[in-house]
Design brief:
The complex is a heterodimer of chains A (220) and B (302). Chain A has 220 residues and is α/β, with parallel strands linked by helices. Chain A has helices spanning 41-48, 74-78, 96-107, 111-124, 140-152, 170-185, 197-203; strands spanning 2-10, 16-25, 30-34, 56-61, 64-65, 81-84, 158-162, 189-193, 206-211, 214-218. Chain A folds into two domains: 1-80 and 159-220, P-loop containing nucleotide triphosphate hydrolases (Rossmann fold), CATH 3.40.50.300; 91-155, no CATH class. With 302 residues, chain B is an alpha+beta fold. Chain B has ten helices and four strands, in the order H-H-E-H-E-H-H-E-H-E-H-H-H-H. Chain B has helices at residues 2-21, 23-56, 73-82, 96-105, 110-114, 134-145, 158-199, 201-209, 214-257, 269-300, and strands spanning 62-67, 88-94, 124-129, 150-156. The chains are: A alpha/beta (220), B alpha+beta (302). The A-B interface holds A 49, 51, 71-72, 75-79, 83, 89-91, 93, 102-103, 105-108, 110-111, 150-151, 154 and B 2-4, 6-7, 10, 202-203, 205-214, 216.
Chain lengths: 220, 302
Amino acid sequence: MISFSQVTKRYPGGHEALSGVNLAIEQGELVFLTGHSGAGKSTLLKLIAAIERPTSGMVSVSGQNVGRLSHRAVPYLRRNIGLVFQDHKLLFDRSVIENVLLPLDIAGLERREALKRARAVIDKVGLLKREKANPVSLSGGEQQRLCIARALVSRPALLLADEPTGNLDAGYAADIMAMFRDFHQVGTTLLIATHDDRAISALGGRTLRLDHGKVEEVAA
Amino acid sequence: MIGWLRHQKHALSAALRRLRAQALTTMLTALAMGVAISLPSGLYLVLGNLDRLAGGLPAQPEISVFLDVGASVAQHQAIAARLRQPDIVKARFVPRDEALATLSAAQDLADITAGLTENPLPDAWVIRPHTASRDELARVATDLGKLPGVAETHVDSQWADRLQAALAIGHTGVWLLAGLFAIALVAISGNAIRAQVLARRDEILVSRLIGATDRYVRRPFLYLGALQGLLGGLAAGGVLAVAGAILRAPVERLASLYGSAYHLLPPSAIEIAAVLGLTTLFGWLGAWFSVTRALHQVEAAR
């Protein structure tokens, strides 16, 4: 589903985040991406979602060369990818349910169907009672669950999560990881960047370690 | 197609919500636009009224039609019949004897006319055509000149020419002003929308990350600009209505002093629709420039 071949990403100023990375992730896999902060985990995820473009090499997602995608085609790629951010990126000028409705509005889904889907996914992350609340009133863990709900509402085949449990205490983190395991079981491909070893050991699955811009497979 | 309509509806209602949420800003912007637009459209109305006033003045251009001295009775009758047609408002026959008598009565000319052995003046018609435009006057004069029994026609159009020239300058001025204020409108709208785009930076960035196209992001702002322009046009209508109400009484008083029942003419429905349509268009245009530019800035600053 995802393949990197000789991918290098150099930022303006000369910092090389990734150097000649090769990797392949199959459909339905659950993959952890670890490494110290600044090792290039976020960069790798951004390359997949075409938020950044590789300096050289090829990034391909579902057979599309993402690095060469035209500006117009990028939105349609992103509609098939759910993104979970460490800082949630929620909109605080609207309610919980409206945050979740945003991807469906963008996709042009009919309102009633959209509401039905949004409620279902909010229920799944346990926030149904708060659907009219402003996200500002939610705890950190609830905000992260809301972010996950928004990422999943358009039923993407691929979910990318960047430090999803980074700011959460252990209880919340375990909740979130359990949720990811459920999605994996229904066939979603997950790529989770984290340095939370407890989470990795709790879920199991393939682990890639990034170090100085290189990727190595970690034996389970 | 249905998805497209849904997007339009969604963007329109989002724009309306935003206008309502910032009622004061919306009103101030509309007022700024309204004052700007009321200048050219007010001048346009004043000129329209002047045009009408000029049409109603007694000092209308006249055409003198001089007949052949030897014109037959039948030709006289044919000419008289032609002058009863609707493009002629008024026609007065001046027999040659009357013309000579008038001439003699004029100061200093009695001596000269007394020395004449016969009347050198032809019979004539003095007519006032329906139109005041120069081209039309010339056409009517040529037309009449071709009638059998007519020796010569003379258009007394100097006054009309001058009025036409003055009004033409006025009309050019209206378009010039309208052009300038259209630019002002685009600038006002662009500025208002730019502030909106920057205020909604987070929403734009997040929408981009979850698959929003340029059009999706741009659409509510374009609606916002168009609606703001429409409100500006309505405000201009309000400004002009107030100005008209204030001016009506003094204008009618002035007219009554001249013994006329002149009334200020309000704009027609088509003119109102045209102004509203144009302000909407220019509001949209300003929003388009602004949102395109601001989006680049927002995304570059990511």
